[in-house]
Amino acid sequence: MARGRIWVAGGAVALLAACGGDGNPPPVDPASPAASYVRTGPWNQGDSAALDGVLRLVDGCLVVEAYGTTTVPIFPSDFVWDPREQTLEAFGLTLTVGQPVYLGGGMTTGPVEHLPAGCAGERFVVHSGQSEPREG
Description:
Helices cover 12% and strands 41% of the residues. It is mainly β and 136 residues long.
């Protein structure tokens, strides 16, 4: 009987990791319009510069548009793209094309593990996010 419990617990842990927990991150999805990287640390830790704007799908690439500029957010590979719903989801956060996004991270010029062909503009590595505006 203990084996069944251990197997179920192990299955639950594997399921949580696959659903965007802080366990081992999945590889990048080459079919996703989101530029991405495989994170090496926990979600919500890292640079804390803000990127606020509207999430758009432009030329097959997810971008954030704000104040006349276009920025390519580079998400952890934990984020899963739903083409039907036009959403990107992980860590309890759902980002929807056409809606405002509030991301934390920092600008980068370094290499990206997955960069869709249509992605152009400055790059912002995402370390955190929320679905509501920041206070203050």
